[in-house]
Write a structure and sequence with these properties.
There is one protein chain. Helix 3 runs antiparallel to helix 16, helix 8 runs antiparallel to helix 9 and helix 9 packs parallel to helix 11. The protein has about 550 residues and is an all-alpha fold. Helices cover about 65% and strands about 0% of the residues. The chain has a single domain, classed as Cytochrome c oxidase-like, subunit I domain (Cytochrome C Oxidase, Chain A). The longest helix is centred in the first third of the chain and has 36 residues. The two termini are about 20 Å apart.
């Protein structure tokens, strides 16, 4: 009897071993995912702090709290930290690590040691980047545009080396996920039975492996030019600065989809779970992730319409960018149809899902202005681009991340958070975000350039409104992280399936056992909602709010 009880209740991954070394040396994909989660969220808070400083500086048309050189440094650090240390690694490395093996019925990823190495490689690159802040800062903007990034006296070399090293972490993670999806699926788990989050993580891994070496080569050439004065990009040395732009955007536009495609996978999970309906058009949504991944490599030139490239090239890049909007539209339409006549439950994760759909749609539609050649000439390098970028990245990726964080938090830590407080925080974030960035569309139309330290007094009212909005966002996010951390120690014990959701992760206890599954997993159709599936899979899923 004692043996049976013990075998039925193996230790969960959080308590199987104790001590900091057990975490630092772990090969458990779940623990590595948690370490990635807290690391990237820490970088998010640092990058957000720099964003608040930028907005405070723009309260007045001239100096408010810092000089122009400091403003350039703060602006650069905000962008570099948010892009390279938070948005790119956050969802794939944290949620992907924790959930992908469970969702396909595996005990771990294909290469556990490589998985742990990738985490430390991220820290090694981040350490170089942080050192660049201490020894002189970087004032080039997060894009490191040449020839200024070659000639400036700031610590560009260290920051570039940091980006170079962090790229290996992204490549290692992508290779691991591709191998895991192809080789570690449980018997019966065909590609067409994989959850849509797995599809999106798989598509993202392809982009990581193919695109990331390009940014590595680019920053390596930049370092060589700064250190050895070899002429790649500087016209004084016989180089071409436009070549740098081609290299940089060939990576950085696919990198946009490294950021957003995993978020789309999260939204697919949330919409089905809180509509209690099977996803509408499973295969089109799944294949659209791959379509976005492949199309992302042929659109980089839309960042360079005013760079002097040929009219034919600009036209072709404009058409290609319109085409990539098709698989994105498929996802939004299918999510909307899935909710139609569904039993929608407005829990906190669903609030973030709706925020994502609303704000990402704005980001996508405003992108149409920027791919129209004649309009882009007016809007290029204005605050319109800033607003568009943030509606896609923060209104998209960050909202999806927050939705996924609230959805899988009970599974990760076995504790519930206060629902009413979470809904209030989600409302604050939504209101604050739109208050911050909607005025920036107007600023851009009125001609306010981005990255400027000073501005004309006529822009001040909109800047003040935008700054107040940033304070509202910060309040909502700090409240969110506060109650989530408190819930780890004081939250109510989470049931195995608090949402009544469908998926392999909801068939196991919260938090999961070390080896994920107590028994061999039963493989079922994707998103089996409704009476038909209840009859087909009796007693497979714990009832909403019940323990295994």
């Amino acid at each position: 009897m004692a043996s049976d009880t013990h075998s039925a209740s193996p230790p969960d991954y959080l308590h199987a071993s104790k001590g900091i070394w057990s975490w630092l040396s772990t090969l458990d994909h779940k623990r590595i995912g948690i370490m990635y989660l807290f690391t990237t969220l820490g970088f998010f808070l640092i990058g957000g702090f720099f964003a608040i400083l930028i907005r405070i500086e723009h309260l007045t048309p001239t100096k408010t709290i810092m000089e122009a050189n400091m403003y350039n440094t703060v602006f650069t650090l905000h962008g570099a930290i948010m892009v390279f240390m938070f948005i790119i690694p956050n969802v794939p490395a944290s949620f992907g690590n924790f959930l992908l093996p469970i969702m396909i019925g595996a005990k771990d990823v294909a290469f556990p040691r490589l998985n742990l190495i990738s985490y430390y490689v991220l820290w090694a690159g981040a350490a170089l980047a942080i050192t660049s802040i201490v020894v002189g800062g970087v004032d080039t903007g997060w894009t490191f545009y040449t020839p200024y990034s070659i000639r400036t006296g700031t610590a560009v070399t260290l920051m570039a080396l940091g980006v170079f090293v962090m790229g290996f972490s992204s490549i290692f993670t992508g290779l691991n996920f591709i191998a895991t999806v192809h080789k570690m699926r449980a018997p019966g788990m065909t590609f067409h039975k994989m959850p849509l989050f797995v599809w999106s993580t798989y598509a993202t891994a392809i982009i990581q492996v193919v695109a990331t070496p390009v940014i590595g080569i680019t920053v390596a050439l930049l370092v060589m030019e700064r250190v050895f004065h070899i002429g790649f990009f500087d016209p004084k040395l016989g180089g071409d600065p436009i070549l740098f732009q081609h290299f940089f955007w060939f990576y950085s536009h696919p990198a946009v989809y490294i950021m957003i495609v995993p978020g789309m996978g999260i939204i697919s999970e949330l919409v089905t779970a809180f509509s209690k309906k099977t996803i509408f058009g499973y295969k089109p949504v799944a294949y659209s992730s791959l379509a976005i991944a492949f199309a992302s490599f042929i659109v980089w030139g839309h960042h360079m319409f005013v760079s002097g490239q040929s009219y034919l090239a600009s036209m072709l890049f404009s058409v290609a960018t319109i085409i990539i909007g098709v698989p994105t539209a498929i996802k939004i339409i299918n999510w909307t149809v899935t909710m139609y006549k569904g039993h929608v439950s407005w829990k906190t994760p669903m609030l973030y899902a709706m925020s994502f759909i609303f704000m990402f749609s704005i980001g996508g539609l405003t992108g149409l202005f920027l791919i129209a050649l004649s309009v882009d000439v007016h809007l290029h390098d204005t605050y319109f681009v800033v607003a568009h970028f943030h509606y896609v990245m923060m209104g998209g990726t960050v909202m999806a991340m927050l939705g996924g964080l609230h959805y899988w938090w009970p599974k990760m830590f076995g504790r519930m958070y206060p629902e009413k407080l979470a809904q209030f925080a989600a409302t604050l974030v939504f209101i604050g975000f739109n208050t911050t960035f909607l005025p920036q569309f107007v600023l851009g139309f009125l001609g306010m350039p981005r990255r400027y330290y000073n501005y004309e007094p006529r822009y001040q009212p909109l800047h003040i409104l935008s700054t107040v909005g940033s304070w509202i966002i910060a309040s909502g996010l700090l409240l969110t992280f506060g109650y989530l951390l408190v819930s780890i120690w004081r939250g109510k014990k989470a049931p195995a399936n608090p949402w009544g959701a469908r998926g392999l992760e909801w068939t196991i206890p919260s938090p999961p056992p070390v080896e994920n599954f107590i028994h061999d997993p039963v493989i079922f159709d994707p998103y089996p909602y409704g009476a038909e599936y209840d009859h087909k899979y009796p007693n497979l899923f714990p009832e909403e709010g019940s323990n295994v």
